[in-house]
Design a protein that fits this description.
This protein is mostly beta strands and 120 residues long. It is 0% helix and 49% strand. It contains no helices and eleven strands. The relative contact order is 0.32.
Length: 120
């Protein structure tokens, strides 16, 4: 079974940047779509961004223009660069992976979560 280990969360000021990393425990040959969900208190879980093995990316409207997802298949690692952060971005961010074409269809693996806090 694939295990996902996240890092890179923390506390930043409004307008700052963070880069999240997620590394799979083994080769990602069986994984197609990888990305991040986020869960903020009192809000529904949101799929923020995803990227396929071939590099096709998708973003939530709230992330477009500010976040960039990338993937290094050789390192079994996916990254989420978050710029121009807002307090509304404060949430626990969960790395996730799917065998299928899109995380939003079915998520097969979950990371442990990492807290991102944006202070105003």
């Amino acid at each position: 079974q694939v295990q996902l280990v996240e890092s890179g969360g923390g506390l930043v000021w409004t307008g700052g940047s963070l880069r999240l990393s997620c590394t799979a425990s083994r080769s990602t040959f069986s994984i197609n779509d990888m990305g991040w969900y986020r869960q903020a208190p009192g809000k529904q879980r949101e799929l923020v961004a995803s990227i396929t093995r071939g590099g096709v990316t998708r973003y939530a409207d709230s992330a477009k223009g500010r976040f960039a997802i990338s993937r290094d298949n050789a390192k079994n690692t996916v990254y989420l660069q978050m710029n121009s952060l807002k307090p509304e971005d404060t949430a626990v961010y969960y790395c996730a992976a799917a065998r299928g074409i899109w995380l939003g269809g079915q998520t097969n693996y979950w990371g442990q979560g990492t807290q991102v806090t944006v202070s105003s």
